[in-house]
Each structure stands twice: as structure tokens, then as C-alpha cells.
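Case 132 in the screening queue. Each case pairs one protein sequence with one candidate compound; here the compound is copper (II) ion. For every case the pipeline is the same: read the inputs, emit a complex structure as C-alpha cells, and attach any notable structural observations.

Predict complex for case 132.
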Amino acid sequence: MKHRNFLLAALAGLVMITAFENAFAGAADYSFEPISVDIKNGAASELGVRLVHKPSGKPVEGAVLFRTRLDMAPDGMADMEAQHAAMPSEEPGVYRFKADLTMAGGWAFRMMAKVPGEKDTIEGVVIFQAKD
Ligand SMILES: [Cu+2]
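Case 132 output:
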């Protein structure tokens, strides 16, 4: 009987620790990666980012990306923005966009994301290199 109580207490402790970790998991557990750093300069250029849950290494499906911005901050031209629009993606955890780039060089793609089951909003920046 004593042994069983100990097990239950240990189990309860484990549940509490798990709950605690979940509460403090969050935005830092996710990262955005470029599908390909090199992209084509010009109109209708395609770029893609993969959202990864770092602890599991798994791509995150069903995220909603919003407040996206594409600008040339990496080359000291933060004011130079590019129009872009989301495109369908077949690959789980991959989010694709079509962008009208106006200049070769470094482009920063900034975004916020809502992930299913995650209360924090994820923020990310991915740097691309547009080539002529
Ligand atoms: Cu520029």
C-alpha cells in the first residue's frame, strides 16, 4: 500500500512538472527556416519558410501567419518593401509566398504566427538572398 501511494505521489509530481513546462514552453520553442535562402529577383518570385517545433524537430502544420513584411533591412534598406501574397503549400509545416521583388540582395521576411495549441504568438525573421 505504501509503495502504491509513493507511486501516485510521484505520478502527481510528474503531471505538475509537465503542466509547468507546458505553461513556459512557448514562442522560444519555434523557429522559422528558409526552404531556400537563394531566391529569384523579380516579379512573382517564390519563397518558402518552414516552421519547426524545436524540442521535437517536427514541422508545425496549421499555423496562421500574419503581419508578414518583406523588406531589404539586411542591405540597409528597411524602407524598401515588397508586395507578397501567401500561396498554397502541399508540404506540412511549409508556408509559401509569392513576392514581387524589385532589387537583388538581402531581403528579410518578418512574420507572426499562431500555432494550434500554443497560446503565445510566434515571431520570426528569415533572411533571403535575391539573385538576378
Ligand atoms: Cu533595395
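Case 132 observations:
- The first strand starts at residue 30 and ends at 34.
- Helices lie at 2-24.
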